Each structure stands twice: as structure tokens, then as C-alpha cells.
């Protein structure tokens, strides 16, 4: 681990970055190795002698600290105090440890490097080992598993609410950073990470929508302030009070704005997906109803015929009477026709007798 952390010391000579501990500012690599190796009397061959922690402030947090190295070292020591106080016994009670009770060494690094599995390396836009762009200041910490008295084993891998709860440790660190340096947002980043990695779909959706509403209100307030500044009747070329500071703040907030746009896009995407899901469920219900309708319609079509037969007997009787009358007329006509022929023959006979 010490050899790995010495990668940025190549070619710097006496100007290289040294380690620092809870009480010292300049510790060499040799001293670090010796202190960690000699502080493990009760640790077995298969057990870890030390653990590695990383403190990685965001670019916005580094800008808030104005890249002050002393402040970064001070906050690291504060975090190690919180780290030590977070250890509890099996009964859940604190072991009352402080950062001075630990054996740890920290080193500040300014660069991060591309790895072989990064997208930029796979696409050929960067090479493995090249430094990442932007502010990548971070702190590596090597902390012994045993306390300074060599009597207590300390393992952050337990991740138990009774022994050592990592989530609580991170939250306490973020809260301390916000309170000490008057910063807002450190705890929000952690909450967002917890929700996005371990939360349900509904929790993620609610969190994204909440962030979207917060960013929207901030944007609207800023637009109102700009409109108020324009309406004050300032002449062209006249500088607005505090304009330069606002421009600097806008430059600093540019990365955060990009994140806000991503949040807005994700919120809209989730909303559209849920809307489509609802529409599909609505479409499926009418389809089922339509499948059942033909059987109902056939029954309805048959029903009027049966009802007509039952409800309108008079019409049937009338039709039957008309049919009988027509038949009787035809029969009468057939019976009267022979009589007409007989009358004609008698008239002819009478005429013959007269002659």
C-alpha cells in the first residue's frame, strides 16, 4: 500500500508529499511501514493488519475550502475522531475512543488515473494510467487494526449497528463538514447515494422529484432576482453591485447545474415510464370488456324476438285473421265461377227456343 501511494513522489525529491498522522505533519514511508507492522501482536497470519480509507471531497467542496491543504488535513483528523468514536462493544455501548488512540497515517494526492475498464480507455480517448481531468484531490488513510495500546481489535468491516455502522459514520462526517465550514450539501450527496444504490424504485422516484422541485424553485428565484435587477433602471455598461461575485459563483456552480439537468431528465423519464404503464393498464381493461360484449349482444338480439312473440299476440292474431280472410276470398271466387258459366248456358237455350 505504501509503495502504491508513492506513485506521485517520483521525480519530486524533497518536494514530495509526506504522510501525516493525528499529531504529526511529516512522516516518511519507512516510519509508516514500521509503525503498522509493529502494531499487530495479536493479529493472525490470515487477518488484515490494517485497513485503507479514502476521503474524496467533491470539486464544489474543494472550491469551498479554496484548496487549502491545512484545512483538508484538519478535516481528515476530525473524521478520524469520528471513526474512533463510532466503534462499540458487543453490548452496543461506545468504546470511548478518539483519533489519538489510533495508529493511522494519511497522505494527500491531487490526481486520479484512468483504469483499464474506464469507458474513455475502451473507446481510445485516453490511456490507462493517464490522469483524470479536473480537481481530483483526495486523501488516502492507512489505519492499523489494533489501537495504540495494542489491546483492542478494530474492524470497520463489521458494518453492524452495534459494533460499527458505516452509514452512520459517513453521515456524521458529512454533518461535521457542513457545520464546521458552513457548507450545505455534503449530507445530501450521501443521502442521494444511499437512496440510489439501496432504495426502492418508489423511493428513488420520490427523491429525484424532490430534488427537481428544489432546483426548480432555486432557478425561479434567481430569475426573479435578475428581473428585479433589470427593472431598477440601470444604464447600459453600468455594473450591477456584486455582479462579479455572481459570475464567479456561476462558474463554480456550472458542474452542479449539469447534475441538475441530469436529475431533471431522469425525473421526466421516470414520470413518462409510469404514465405509459398506467395507459397500458387502462387499455387492457377495455379489451377485456370488448371480449365479453359479443355474448351479451347476441343475447340482446335474441331477446327482442322472444319478447315480441310474448308481448304482441294481438299482432299475430291480426296476421292470422288477414291470412284466413284472403284464403276465404279465394275459396269464394273459386265457388262462384261455375255459377256464372251456368247462367250463360241457360240464356243461350232461351234464345234458341224463341227462334
Q: What does this protein look like?
A:
With 355 residues, this protein is mainly α. Among the domains are: 4-184, no CATH class; 199-226 and 258-287, no CATH class. It is built from nine helices and three strands. It has a three-stranded antiparallel beta sheet with strand order 1-3-2, covered by helices on one side. Helix 3 (69-85) packs antiparallel against helix 5, helix 5 packs antiparallel against helix 6 (186-198) and helix 7 (201-230) crosses helix 8. It is globular and about 160 Å long. Mean pLDDT is 76; it is low at 293-314 and 323-341.
**Beta-strand percentage?**
5-15%
Largest sheet: 3 strands, antiparallel
Q: H/E order of the elements?
A: HEHHEHEHHHHH
Poorly predicted residue ranges: 293-314, 323-341
Termini separation (Å)? 160 Å
Number of strands: 3
Give the rounded overall mean pLDDT: 76
Helix content: 55-70%
Strand order of the largest sheet: 1-3-2
Secondary-structure content class: mainly alpha
**Morphology call:** globular
The number of helical runs is 9
Rounded to the nearest angstrom, the radius of gyration is: 47 Å
Amino acid at each position: 500500500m505504501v509503495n502504491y501511494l508513492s506513485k506521485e513522489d517520483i521525480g519530486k525529491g524533497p518536494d514530495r508529499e509526506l504522510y501525516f498522522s493525528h499529531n504529526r505533519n511529516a512522516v516518511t514511508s519507512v516510519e509508516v511501514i514500521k509503525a503498522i507492522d509493529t502494531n499487530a501482536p495479536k493479529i493472525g497470519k490470515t487477518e488484515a493488519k490494517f485497513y485503507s480509507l479514502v476521503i474524496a471531497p467533491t470539486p464544489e467542496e474543494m472550491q469551498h475550502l479554496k484548496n487549502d491543504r491545512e484545512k483538508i488535513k484538519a478535516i481528515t483528523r476530525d473524521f478520524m475522531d469520528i471513526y474512533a468514536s463510532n466503534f462499540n462493544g458487543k453490548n452496543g455501548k461506545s468504546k470511548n475512543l478518539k483519533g489519538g488512540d489510533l495508529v493511522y497515517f494519511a497522505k494527500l494526492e491531487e490526481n486520479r488515473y484512468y483504469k483499464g475498464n474506464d469507458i474513455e480507455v475502451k473507446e481510445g480517448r485516453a490511456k490507462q494510467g493517464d490522469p483524470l481531468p479536473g480537481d481530483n484531490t483526495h486523501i488516502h488513510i492507512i489505519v492499523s487494526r489494533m489501537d495504540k495500546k495494542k489491546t483492542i481489535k478494530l474492524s470497520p468491516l463489521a458494518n453492524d449497528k452495534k459494533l460499527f455502522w458505516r452509514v452512520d459514520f459517513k453521515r456524521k462526517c458529512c454533518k461535521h463538514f457542513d457545520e464546521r465550514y458552513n457548507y450545505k450539501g455534503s449530507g445530501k450527496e450521501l443521502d442521494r447515494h444511499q437512496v440510489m444504490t439501496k432504495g426502492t424504485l418508489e423511493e428513488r422516484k420520490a427523491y429525484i422529484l424532490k430534488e427537481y422541485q428544489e432546483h426548480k424553485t432555486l432557478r425561479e428565484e434567481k430569475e426573479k432576482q435578475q428581473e428585479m435587477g433589470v427593472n431598477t433602471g440601470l444604464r447600459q455598461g453600468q455594473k450591477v453591485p456584486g455582479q462579479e461575485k455572481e459570475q464567479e459563483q456561476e462558474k463554480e456552480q456550472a458542474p452542479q447545474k449539469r447534475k441538475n439537468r441530469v436529475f431533471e431528465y431522469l425525473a421526466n423519464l421516470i414520470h413518462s415510464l409510469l404514465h405509459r404503464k398506467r395507459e397500458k393498464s387502462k387499455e387492457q381493461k377495455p379489451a377485456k370488456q370488448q371480449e365479453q360484449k359479443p355474448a351479451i349482444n347476441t343475447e340482446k338480439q335474441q331477446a327482442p324476438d322472444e319478447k315480441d312473440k310474448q308481448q304482441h299476440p294481438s299482432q299475430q292474431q291480426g296476421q292470422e285473421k288477414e291470412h284466413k280472410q284472403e284464403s276465404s276470398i279465394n275459396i269464394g271466387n273459386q265457388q262462384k265461377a261455375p255459377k256464372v258459366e251456368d247462367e250463360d248456358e241457360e240464356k243461350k237455350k232461351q234464345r234458341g227456343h224463341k227462334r
